[in-house]
Amino acid sequence: MSFKRHWLNLMFLLACAELCLSQKKERFNAGVEDRGFTGDETAAGVQVSLEACMVLDSHLTTVFFPIVYIVVFAVGLPTNAMAIWVFLFRTKKKHPAAIYMANLALSDLLFVIWTPLKIAYHINGNDWIYGERLCKVLVGFFYGNMYCSILFITCISVQRYWAIVYPLSQDCRNNHVAIGVSVAIWVGVWLLTTPLYLYDQTVKVTNLNIITCHDVTRPSQNSMAAGFFLTMGTLGFVVPTVLCVVVNVLMLKSLRNSMTDASITKNRRKAVVLIITVLIIFLVCFTPSNIMMLVTYSLLLAQVVHNDYGFYITTLCLASLNSCVDPFIYYFISEEFREQVKNTLRCRSQRA
C-alpha cells in the first residue's frame, strides 16, 4: 500500500470540497461578517455568515457528506460487528492487544449505528428534525468514538512497544491491566464529552430556515463551546498523539537494531511495515480534523474573523472513515484474527 497514494487521495477529496464551495459563491450576497459557524443571534435563532450559508446550501454537505457516511455505515457496520464477534467468541487466547482491539471495534460500532441519522440530516438539506436530545446523543457518540479510537490505538502501540522492547516482562501480557485501562478510557471519554450535553446543539438558522445539528454555535455559547473543544482536543488528541509517535519511533529504532538476527529478520520487517501503516492511518484520519478544530475554536474564542468553516467540517466528516478502516487494520496486524475471520466465514457459508 502506497503512503503517497493515501495523501494524494486525501488532498483530492479536500480539493473537491473546496470546488463545491466555490460553485456556490455567486448565489449569495454578504450579509453577515464571516465568522465561521456562528453569526448574529436573535430571538428567532442565528443569522449565519456568508461562508456558512454557502457550506450549508452546497453539494458538499448535501451530497458529498451523505456519500461518505453511507460508505462508513455500509462498510463499518458488518466489519466491526464481525471483529467484535471474532474477538469475543472466536479468539481462544485473550491477550492485551486483543482486548484493546475489541474495545476499539466496539467504539466504532457504537458510532456507526447512529450514522443513518447523520445521512438523513445532510440529505434533508442539513435540516435536523429529530429533536435536541437525539442530536446531542449523535454528537456525543461522534466525538466519543473519535477519542476512544485515538486512545485505544495509542494503547495498542504502547502495548506492542512494551512487548517488543521488554519481551520477558509480564506486564505486557497482563489482561487485568488491559481491562483496567480500557474501563478508564471509557469513563474518561464519557466525562470528557459530558459538556456536549450541557449546551444547545440544535440551532435554527434564520437566513436558511433550517435547524442545524452541531453545525452552528450560538454566539452566547461560544466561550463554553470553545473552552470545551480546546480542552478535548488537547487531552484527547495532542497528548495521545505525542505518546503514540514517541513509542512508535522508539519501537522502530529497537526493531532496526535487531535486524542483524537472521532468524527474526522477516518478522521484524513485517512489524516495521505494520507500525508505519498504522501510524500513517492514525495521522491521516485524526490529525487534519483535530488541528482544524483547535485552530477554529481558538479563533472563535479570540473573535478573529476567518473563513475555514467548510474545510473544518470536511475534515470532521473524513475523520469518520476511521470507523470502517480499523477492521482492516486488525485483519493485517493479527494473523490470529485473520484466520478466525476466514474460519467464521467458512462456517457461515457451510450452514447456508
Automatic annotation (TrEMBL):
GO cellular component: plasma membrane
Name of the protein in question: G-protein coupled receptors family 1 profile domain-containing protein
Signal sequence annotation: 1-22
Domain G-protein coupled receptors family 1 profile: 79-330
Transmembrane segments: 64-88, 97-117, 137-156, 177-199, 225-250, 271-297, 309-333
Disulfide linkage: C135-C213
Keywords: Cell membrane, Disulfide bond, G-protein coupled receptor, Glycoprotein, Membrane, Receptor, Signal, Transducer, Transmembrane, Transmembrane helix
SUPFAM superfamilies, alphabetized: Family A G protein-coupled receptor-like
